[in-house]
Design brief:
Helices cover 37% and strands 27% of the residues. By secondary structure, it is an alpha/beta fold. The protein binds adenosine-5'-triphosphate and magnesium ion.
């Protein structure tokens, strides 16, 4: 983040646990308006837990989450969404027996005001337009991922949390997805991405934070990260 830029999202030293199992140990990072920031890390380091903490799905035990100057720590998930944070979870929760169109329409019903309509979503994801009458359950993995992102956009978020969007997708599909997310970014959307896929992330992100065992162990621009071979080897085993 350019020094002096006011962050839209500030995560400040959060500690999060599932019952007695402590997962995050003082995670802090910032996201500025219009930025794409990536949380990188291997399996189980706490990427999803960080996103769940922001959304209020697993509120942190201590620390603060500040969204546009407002403390939202522990706010209910629907409130966080209503304040403009959209979450695309890693398990692609679409309605399998509803059509693509119906999935979008359901999402639009609990929306905050804004510019996203099904028409705009179809412009961003042209492949979905041709599938509008197909049931969600019959879509491919890549199409389901697109629909999951599209459905979240229908809620008019200002910040999009994308949890491992590339996971389990074929390389060509990942390539398309990256282009589409890049277009959302060019459109002005602020994005927080959680990923293990370094190449996918570095092509999209302005800055990266590497997580290891529930702590931030590296922070830098994508360019700095790309040039630092030792960080890749140490924390991402590449
Ligand atoms: N509901 C839960 N109850 C108890 N422990 C959990 C729960 N969800 C996750 N954990 C544990 O918390 C730790 C961090 O998990 P998390 O899902 O945040 O990691 P992650 O970085 O998203 O991993 P992945 O890349 O596999 O998605 C792991 O040790 C995991 O086993
Ligand atoms: Mg995860």
């Amino acid at each position: 983040m350019a020094s002096g830029a006011e962050p839209v999202l500030a995560v400040e030293a959060i500690h999060t646990a599932y019952g007695l199992s402590r997962v995050l140990f003082g995670v802090s990072f910032r996201v500025a308006a219009g930025e794409c920031v990536c949380l990188l890390g291997r399996n189980g380091v706490g990427k999803t837990t960080t996103m769940r903490s922001i959304m209020g799905l697993t509120p942190p035990a201590s620390g603060r989450i500040v969204w546009k100057g407002r403390d939202i720590t522990g706010a209910a998930p629907f409130r966080v969404a209503a304040l403009g944070i959209g979450f695309v979870p890693e398990d692609r929760r679409i309605f399998g027996d509803l059509t693509v169109w119906e999935n979008l329409d359901v999402a639009a019903r609990r929306t905050r005001p804004g510019g996203f309509t099904a028409e705009r979503v179809f412009e961003l994801f042209p492949a979905l337009r041709g599938l509008r009458d197909r049931q969600g359950g019959f879509l491919s993995g890549g199409e389901q991922q697109m629909l999951t992102v599209a459905r979240t956009l229908m809620g008019n978020p200002e910040l999009l949390l994308l949890d491992e969007p590339s996971e389990g997708l074929a390389p060509l599909v990942v390539h398309h997805l990256r282009e589409q997310i890049g277009r959302l970014k060019a459109d002005g959307l602020t994005i927080l991405l959680a990923e293990q896929n370094v190449d996918f992330s570095l092509n999209l992100a302005d800055r990266v934070y590497v997580l290891e065992k529930g702590r931030v162990c590296y922070e830098g621009t994508s360019r700095e990260f790309r040039e630092d071979e030792s960080i890749r080897q140490q924390y991402l085993a590449l």
